[in-house]
């Protein structure tokens, strides 16, 4: 089956810093989504981005489907950005999550 | 408010018992999903339903069962056949059927087997 990798596994930032999270996938996909899971377990969809670039406030994402990767950019990070960021891909009738990047933003 | 509710938030059960986790949505979404998350891991798909009275197995369906008798409800039963049931269970829904649409998640149920 398809493999989804995320890097880095852990990231610690000072408030105000910028960061880039990466998602690599091993095969062509129908769909790619980025999620944020807060420390209480709630998952929020950030982007639906099978290709191209999208921006939402301080967050933006780019997917290069032909090269099988996606990037999530967080600018001017805030403590509320802490949590785990997952990318997830679908292909056929399967939906696979990556292992996540755990982000800690320090005040 | 529209959204997805899961109950209970925490659930404890003895080994050998079946337990049913509730998931309800009032978003009028066609598709619903169940995921399992183990500590420090990503989510794994258990079952999904694209339409009422229809559902498909995901990657880790063994030891679980579901039903979809109503559009707004998709309960998950963790049976005694599930060897390691202690986990965080998340329910999700999406507007359209299939797996190519934005998914919205409930708050989750933490199941602990004693």
Précis, in short:
The complex is a heterodimer of chains A (107) and B (114). With 107 residues, chain A is mainly beta.
Features:
heterodimer, A: 107 residues, mainly beta, six-stranded mixed sheet, five-stranded antiparallel sheet, 0% helix, globular, B: 114 residues, seven-stranded mixed sheet, four-stranded antiparallel sheet, 49% strand
- Please provide the count of β strands of chain B: 11
Q: In angstroms, what is the radius of gyration of chain B?
A: 13 Å
What is the quaternary state of this protein? heterodimer
Beta-strand content bin of chain B: over 45%
Continuous helix count of chain B: 0
- Global shape of chain A: globular
Distance between the first and last residues' Cα of chain A = 41 Å
Order of helices and strands of chain B: EEEEEEEEEEE
Characterize the structure shown:
- Chain A has strands at 4-7, 10-14, 19-25, 31-37, 43-48, 52-56, 59-64, 69-74, 83-91, 94-97, 101-106.
- In chain A, a hairpin with a 2-residue loop joins strand 6 and strand 7 (59-64).
- Chain A is globular and about 40 Å long.
- The N and C termini of chain A lie far apart (41 Å).
- Chain A is 0% helix and 61% strand.
- In chain B, strand 4 and strand 5 (43-51) form a beta hairpin.
- With 114 residues, chain B is mainly beta.
- In chain B, the strands form 2 sheets. In chain B, strands 2, 4, 5, 6, 9, 10 and 11 form a 7-stranded mixed sheet that branches.
- The radius of gyration of chain B is 13 Å and the shape is globular.
Task: Give a topology summary.
The complex is a heterodimer of chains A (107) and B (114).
Chain A: E1 4-7, E2 10-14, E3 19-25, E4 31-37, E5 43-48, E6 52-56, E7 59-64, E8 69-74, E9 83-91, E10 94-97, E11 101-106
Parallel strand pairs in A: 2-11
Antiparallel strand pairs in A: 1-3, 3-8, 4-5, 4-9, 6-7, 7-8, 9-10, 9-11
Chain B: E1 4-7, E2 10-13, E3 19-25, E4 31-37, E5 43-51, E6 54-57, E7 64-66, E8 76-78, E9 87-94, E10 104-105, E11 109-113
Parallel strand pairs in B: 2-11
Antiparallel strand pairs in B: 1-3, 3-8, 4-5, 4-9, 5-6, 7-8, 9-10, 9-11
């Amino acid at each position: 089956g398809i493999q989804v990798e995320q890097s880095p596994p852990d990231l610690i930032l000072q408030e105000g810093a910028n960061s880039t999270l990466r998602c690599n996938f091993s095969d062509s996909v129908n769909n790619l989504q980025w999620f944020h899971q807060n420390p209480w377990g709630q998952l929020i969809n950030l982007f639906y981005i099978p290709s191209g670039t999208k921006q939402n406030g301080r967050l933006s994402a780019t997917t290069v489907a032909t090269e099988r990767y996606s990037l999530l950019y967080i600018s001017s990070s805030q403590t509320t950005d802490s949590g785990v960021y997952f990318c997830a891909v679908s292909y056929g009738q399967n939906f696979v999550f990556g292992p996540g990047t755990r982000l800690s933003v320090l005040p | 408010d529209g959204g997805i509710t899961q109950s209970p938030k925490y659930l404890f059960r003895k080994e050998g018992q079946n337990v049913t986790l509730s998931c309800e949505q009032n978003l009028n979404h066609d598709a619903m999903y169940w995921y399992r998350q183990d500590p420090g891991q990503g989510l794994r798909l258990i079952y999904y339903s694209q339409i009422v009275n229809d559902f498909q197995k995901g990657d880790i369906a063994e030891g679980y069962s579901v039903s979809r008798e109503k559009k707004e409800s998709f309960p998950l039963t963790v049976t005694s056949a599930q060897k390691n049931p202690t986990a965080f269970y998340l329910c999700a829904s999406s507007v359209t059927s299939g797996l190519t649409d934005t998914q919205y998640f409930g708050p989750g149920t933490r199941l602990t087997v004693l």
